[in-house]
TrEMBL record:
<dbReference type="Pfam" id="PF02894">
    <property type="entry name" value="GFO_IDH_MocA_C"/>
</dbReference>
<feature type="domain" description="Gfo/Idh/MocA-like oxidoreductase N-terminal">
    <location>
        <begin position="72"/>
        <end position="206"/>
    </location>
</feature>
<feature type="compositionally biased region" description="Basic and acidic residues">
    <location>
        <begin position="28"/>
        <end position="62"/>
    </location>
</feature>
<dbReference type="InterPro" id="IPR050424">
    <property type="entry name" value="Gfo-Idh-MocA_inositol_DH"/>
</dbReference>
<dbReference type="InterPro" id="IPR004104">
    <property type="entry name" value="Gfo/Idh/MocA-like_OxRdtase_C"/>
</dbReference>
<dbReference type="Pfam" id="PF01408">
    <property type="entry name" value="GFO_IDH_MocA"/>
</dbReference>
<feature type="region of interest" description="Disordered">
    <location>
        <begin position="24"/>
        <end position="62"/>
    </location>
</feature>
<dbReference type="InterPro" id="IPR000683">
    <property type="entry name" value="Gfo/Idh/MocA-like_OxRdtase_N"/>
</dbReference>
<feature type="domain" description="Gfo/Idh/MocA-like oxidoreductase C-terminal">
    <location>
        <begin position="220"/>
        <end position="434"/>
    </location>
</feature>
<dbReference type="GO" id="GO:0000166">
    <property type="term" value="F:nucleotide binding"/>
</dbReference>
<dbReference type="InterPro" id="IPR036291">
    <property type="entry name" value="NAD(P)-bd_dom_sf"/>
</dbReference>
<protein>
    <submittedName>
        <fullName>Uncharacterized protein LOC109728509</fullName>
    </submittedName>
</protein>
Length: 441
């Protein structure tokens, strides 16, 4: 057995950033703030992204930026792997008005890496905007008044508390919360109830696989009716094991909600979309068979499953099947999706970015292969451009000032968690689990 601790896996970065009790770090130096010459020099170079103090002034005056787009100020809560991915995506949306003004994370190394990333992006673009203000906790970030939108990209088990604090904060902040919405159905429900009382706040759940070009293309094909009435949706994810995370939070069901919630909520969300129906019951078989068995954290061996088959029945009679394997690095594609209707069949392959569409009438000879791409994507990142499109979509909902609802709602978030919870329970109990059972339990 290998005894591992967070410090073994993440230590040694040697970045000299100190954080204590909500203290603000990485903030602008007063001498630069007060230096009129310096401010002008910086303003002259500020073609690509306005500084946060300018943004603050603009927001107060209700002005718009040089390209006629109102600046939307973002705060990122949790700047580990995914939080920094959000920083990068928002950087590529600066011409659309996105600007990261603050970040919050209790882990000094993550904050340091986020600020370092910001510096390298500015250097790359010959831009001298000040760094985002850095906080050790989300409450200080909210109280700073520095942002209009909060992106929650902290570990799954922290989503609930942070969501509730953002929703209850006197100052309204729009929210993009990473999947899964929360780790339990009870918490998801409480968030939904709280959000109902703040209709001025837009909340989007980060189920971004919907935006991957081949998946989006297949959704379009299905929704056009080309395949007829959808009867079967099969999603195979064959990939590498879970990555190492800060303090190894993803190694335990209690933190992540379990593999079928943490990872597979994406696929349950897609199944619901393709089936255009809600789930009724779930049967699953899965185990931890290969990965993480030689790892021990604070005396505990990880309990997250690394493979499963999950069957989902929907209320319109269609069926879904998930085939998950997390020790399948030897795969050409990470995701293979097949949707079969009573007229035809569609398939999507990621990362090949190919969609195939055929019909029963024309058979194999009639199968068409489409290369899926989305020219709007300016940054592919870790998820084939889907995070970029997710942000683009949310940004336009925000700019629509309430007339455009976020495309992935809290209810979508709830169902994707409920299907995962039902799958986890089914594995534990060895029987079908109804969605009603988990929604009302
Ligand atoms: N959309 C996707 O496909 C996708 C991919 C990866 C991760 N995620 C989600 O993103 C979230 C973060 O995952 P990650 O891979 O970046 O993990 P990570 O461990 O790399 O980063 C998490 C960061 O959050 C910080 N943190 C911990 N508690 C916090 C708190 N209370 N407030 C603020 N920050 C806190 C940690 O110090 C760390 O820096 C998770 O919810 C995960 O499920 C989504």
């Amino acid at each position: 057995m290998v005894q591992r601790r967070a410090s073994d896996l993440h230590g040694g970065l040697g970045v000299g950033v100190g954080v204590s009790g909500g203290r603000c770090i990485g903030s602008r130096r007063p001498d630069r703030e007060g230096d009129g010459e310096e401010r002008l020099r910086r303003a002259g170079k500020r073609r690509e992204a306005p500084s946060s103090e300018t943004v603050g002034e603009r927001r107060r005056e209700g002005e718009e930026d040089a390209v006629g787009v109102g600046v939307i100020r973002y705060g990122i809560v949790g700047v580990g792997m995914m939080g920094r991915e959000h920083v990068l995506n928002l950087h590529h949306l600066r011409e659309e008005g996105a600007l990261v003004t603050c970040v919050a994370d209790p882990h000094p190394d993550s904050l340091a890496l986020a600020l370092q990333l910001h510096r390298s992006l500015l250097h790359h673009n010959n831009n001298s905007s000040p760094p985002p203000q850095a906080f050790s906790g989300h409450r200080e970030l909210l109280d700073s008044g520095l942002c209009d939108v909060v992106v929650i990209s902290s570990p799954n088990m922290t989503h609930f508390e942070i969501l509730m604090d953002v929703i209850h904060h006197p100052r309204p902040h729009h929210i993009l919360v990473e999947k899964p919405l929360c780790t339990t159905i009870e918490d998801c429900r409480k968030v939904i109830e709280a959000a109902k009382k703040r209709p001025e706040i837009l909340v989007q759940v980060g189920l971004e696989y919907r935006y991957m070009p081949p998946v989006a293309k297949l959704i379009e094909v299905v929704q056009s009716g080309t395949l007829g009435q959808v009867k079967m949706v099969a999603i195979r994810e064959h990939r590498f094991p879970f990555l190492v995370k800060v303090n190894n939070w993803n190694r335990f069901n209690v933190n992540s909600g379990g593999t079928l919630v943490e990872k597979c909520c994406h696929f349950f969300d897609l199944m619901r979309l393709f089936a255009a129906a809600n789930p009724v019951r779930v049967m699953a078989s899965g185990a931890i068979d290969v990965n993480h068995k030689d790892e021990v954290y604070d005396g505990k061996v990880p309990d997250i499953i690394d493979n499963a088959f999950v069957i989902v029945e929907f209320d319109n009679g269609s069926r879904g099947m998930l085939d998950l394997c997390m020790f399948a690095e030897g795969s050409k594609n990470e995701q293979e999706i097949s949707v079969v209707g009573d007229i035809g069949k569609g398939e999507a392959f990621v990362p090949e970015s190919i969609v195939r569409v055929g019909s029963r009438k024309e058979g194999r000879a009639g199968v068409v292969t489409i290369k899926a791409e989305d020219k709007r994507i300016k940054y592919d990142g870790l998820h084939h451009g889907s995070s970029y499109l997710e942000h683009l979509n949310f940004l336009s909902a925000i700019k629509a000032r309430g007339s455009g609802a976020p495309s992935v709602s809290l209810i979508d978030g709830l169902y994707s968690v409920a299907m995962g919870v039902a799958g986890q329970l089914s594995i534990e109990k060895g029987r079908f689990v109804t969605i009603e059972e988990v929604l009302t339990g």
